[in-house]
Each structure stands twice: as C-alpha cells, then as structure tokens.
Amino acid sequence: MLHAPEKVSGGEMDSAPAQELLDLVQGHVPRLLENGWPNALMSAASLVSDDLIILDSDRPNDWRLMAGVLCAPTFWTLPERVGLDLGGLHGPVPGGDPELAGRIGRVFSGLQPGIVLERFNWTVQVTGERFTPERPNPAGCT
What single string gives the DSSP state of each residue in the chain? Predict the structure, then answer.
C-alpha cells in the first residue's frame, strides 16, 4: 500500500461507505496518531491487516465492487475489477461454480445492519509473497 498504492487500491476511496468503514475500524482499533493517508479507505486499511473491499447494490442480488484496498490478491488487481459484479469477480476461478455469484448475492442482500460478515479464504502460493497479482509461470514450479 505504501510502495504501490495504484496497484492495490481503486474506486471511490472517499465515498460515504468508505468513511463509514473508516469509522467502524477506528471504533475497534486503537487510534494512536493521525495516519496521514490520502483518503478514508487507505486510512482504514492502514489500521488492519485485512484487505478491505466495498460492494454496493442498486438492484437486489446485483452487488458490484465499488472500492477497496487489496494488498494480498490472488492473480488479479483491484483497479482492473472496480465496477464488476460478483459474476465478473468470481468468473475466472478455474473449476468455479457458475451459481456461486447468485448465492453470494442473496447472502449479501439478506444482511442486516449491525451484522458482520467475515470471510476466510486460503490459497496455495508458489512463493512466500502475499502480493501475487499475476499467475506464476508453471515452468520450474515443483
């Protein structure tokens, strides 16, 4: 985030949802110093180790990536995906379930204020790097 913000962040970084996210994070994390980041979303991301993604919907079950800070991607970057719906975000998963986007959309649409949805994800990487926006060349991998 510090060395290549254009690779890990994108979208409406100072929107009302971004400010709301910052307020939520600051309510749970000690705020020691004003951190000096250029926008609300990067300020929030600097306080936690998690990737922070904002999705929004103007139609039922049609959620789109509006903004985020994604420091540990698996073969994609956030700027290239801003504005895509869940199908666009999850479509490239090899062997992925074509019904997945619809099910995720229904879960998101059913969320109520005050309910936290936490997602855990894992993957196997060829190296110890967490920032992996490109697929590694399979040649030489064992």
Answer: --S-HHHHEEE-TTSHHHHHHHHHHHHHS---S----SSHHHHHHTTSSS-EEEEEESSTT-EEEEEEE-SS-BS--STTTTT-BHHHHHTTSTT--TTHHHHHHHHHHH--TT-----------SSS-S-B-SPPPSTT--
Along the 142 residues of the chain, how does pLDDT read in single tens digits?
888 888 889 899 999 999 999 998 888 877 655 568 889 999 999 988 888 999 999 888 889 999 999 988 888 888 999 999 988 887 666 777 778 888 888 998 998 888 877 777 777 777 777 778 787 776 656 5
Distance CA(141)–CA(128), nearest Å, equals 13
51: left (phi over 0), alpha (psi -120 to 50) or beta: beta
Cα separation, 20 vs 44, whole angstroms? 10
